[in-house]
Amino acid sequence: MKAQPDASQLARIGISLPKKLLDQLDAMVAERGLPGRSQLIAELIRHELADPENGLEGDVLAGTITLIYRAESGRVRHALAKLQSEFLPEVISSQHVFLEEDKSLEVLLVQGSTERLRSLCDRLRSVRAVQQLKLVTTQSLLPPLHAHGELPEPEAPRKAG
Question: Which domain holds residue 73?
Answer without folding.
Answer: 60-138
